[in-house]
């Protein structure tokens, strides 16, 4: 098998043996056994998918040798276990994020069951993503890109099949509340939820950050808040709000006969 030509900047993101011809704006494949060139057209995704499949065919002989010598490729399921064990913990992700990842991991294991990391093609990934809603597809795509990036860094696959797919357009499903609608909801809400709504309107913070606001965070004329979602990645998560008369009125209403360090709280219901 011939030694492949050095990769220039235009070819770095392409599979081995696939090259971009900038003069014609087309792709071409160089057969590794004899160096013969084949035109692959101008469709990037189709060219990459075809090149990967051809590369796998040429690698089959090497795979058989590797299997005999104990150097067979790692299964996708096996590498996913490694990713969960070694890559995710240092990131200290939120419990909700890890729960969402677990759902996606089950989907990946079922979809790519019995496949090695380097056997998964763009088409396989695209077919899985096409069957999902745009939001879920984009979540899975982003996660797969990260997984295959780590696999490629270990030499387990020549490129990233997920990165060559296209992000889906998500149509917004939620509608903004009207002032009248929000007033109607607030009037029917219990006191603790009214306090939460008022704090959200004044501070414009996320739901989880509203629930984390504490009485001891109110000091020296400011209400101090740590944004949970960005606290581990940016100093901008530590913020403070000037306690205006409106904000002070809400904080004062939060103090009631229930002992709690949090502004938003409610008396727990008794077990029946």
Automatic annotation (TrEMBL):
PROSITE patterns: CB. One of its GO terms (biological process) is DNA recombination. Keywords: DNA integration, DNA recombination, DNA-binding. The keyword Transport does not apply. Pfam families: Arm-DNA-bind_1. One of its GO terms (molecular function) is integrase activity. Gene3D superfamilies: 1.10.150.130, Classic Zinc Finger, Intergrase catalytic core. The lineage of its organism: Bacteria, Pseudomonadati, Pseudomonadota, Gammaproteobacteria, Pseudomonadales. This is Phage integrase, putative. Residues 74-152 form the Core-binding (CB) domain. Belongs to the 'phage' integrase family. It comes from Pseudomonas mandelii JR-1. SUPFAM superfamilies: DNA breaking-rejoining enzymes (SSF56349), DNA-binding domain (SSF54171).
């Amino acid at each position: 098998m011939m030694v492949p030509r050095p990769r220039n900047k235009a070819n770095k993101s392409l599979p081995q043996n696939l090259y971009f011809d900038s003069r014609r704006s087309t792709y071409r494949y160089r057969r590794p056994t004899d160096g013969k060139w084949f035109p692959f057209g101008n469709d990037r995704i189709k060219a990459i998918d075809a090149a990967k499949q051809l590369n796998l065919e040429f690698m089959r002989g090497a795979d058989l040798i590797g299997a005999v010598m104990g150097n067979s490729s790692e299964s996708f399921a096996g590498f996913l276990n490694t990713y969960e064990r070694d890559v995710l913990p240092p990131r200290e992700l939120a419990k909700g994020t890890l729960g969402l990842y677990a759902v996606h991991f089950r989907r990946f294991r079922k979809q790519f069951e019995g496949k090695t990391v380097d056997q998964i093609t763009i088409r396989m990934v695209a077919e899985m993503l096409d069957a999902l809603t745009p939001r879920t597809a984009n979540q899975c795509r982003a996660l797969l890109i990260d997984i295959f990036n780590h696999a490629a860094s270990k030499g387990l696959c020549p490129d990233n099949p997920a990165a060559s797919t296209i992000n889906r357009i998500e149509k917004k499903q939620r509608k903004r509340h009207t002032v009248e609608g929000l007033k109607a909801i607030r009037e029917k809400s219990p006191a603790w939820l009214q306090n939460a709504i008022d704090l959200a309107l004044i501070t414009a913070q996320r739901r989880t950050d509203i629930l984390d606001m504490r009485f001891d965070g109110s000091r020296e004329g400011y209400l101090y808040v740590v944004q949970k979602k960005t606290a581990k990645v940016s100093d901008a998560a530590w913020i403070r709000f000037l306690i205006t008369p409106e904000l002070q009125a809400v904080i004062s209403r939060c103090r009631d006969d229930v002992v709690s360090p949090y502004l938003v709280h409610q008396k727990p219901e008794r077990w029946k």
